Amino acid sequence: MSGAERRCLVAGNWKMNGLLEDAMAYVAELGENPAPEHVEVAIMPPFTLLHPMSGPLSEKGVRLGAQSVYFEQKGAFTGSISPLMLRDAGCHYVILGHSERRDIIHEDNALIRKKMLAAWQAGLEPILCIGEHLEEREAGKTNDVLREQLAILEGVAENKPLTVAYEPVWAIGTGRTATPEQVVETHAFVHEELARLGCDCRVLYGGSVKPDNAEALLACPGVEGALVGGASLQADSFMRIIEAAARAAG
Ligand code: PGA
Known about the structure:
Layout: E1 8-13, H1 20-29, E2 39-44, H2 50-59, E3 63-66, H3 83-88, E4 93-96, H4 99-103, H5 109-121, E5 125-130, H6 134-138, H7 142-150, E6 163-166, H8 180-196, E7 202-206, H9 214-218, E8 225-228, H10 235-249
Parallel strand pairs: 1-2, 1-8, 2-3, 3-4, 4-5, 5-6, 6-7, 7-8
The site of 2-phosphoglycolic acid (PGA) has 13 residues, from strand 8.
């Protein structure tokens, strides 16, 4: 793990899952102290659960994040949630550029950039997701795709709170993970590109991270945490990933 004094982050992206009663039971299952010394823990539930989860999570030292945001702070934007509202609900993080929003909702880099600027304005830390599709990897275009997705940081990201998550799209929700060699090589490229852009930020890995592969992935040089989808939906499997992160960091 690089970034000696940086804590790694294990973040659970619940996507469009979770009702109030189950969420409260989940938080109880996390126990008193779910975040070990060298590991930061965060949960990104759907918008409807942000307010009720905020207090109980913060008591346990778990940070709260949202899965998306609009790029204006308030006004006539029916159905939208602003960065200011996320701060008001107790969020520290907001996920931006997730491949499901890029591919299903057609969010492009220009829109993601606007959201990132608005998130910073409200004091949020974006988790910027980047990643290539399988055809792009097979065509040897991975680095070009990542370079283009990171280009939104050009000239604006220095000294800003930021985490990047490398999530190969072909590994998300598929049970297929990148090999440690692919992870090491790609993370090295992402860190290099970030350094060129003046950002010294954490880079997480995401895509089918599970309790049984987490330690190997998190031990890869350049990997400073995980963005976990499916395996974060059950408290026990999420906690096993947190423990794996603590072993990899220790
Ligand atoms: P997954 O999702 O762990 O279910 O593959 C990861 C993500 O989409 O962030």
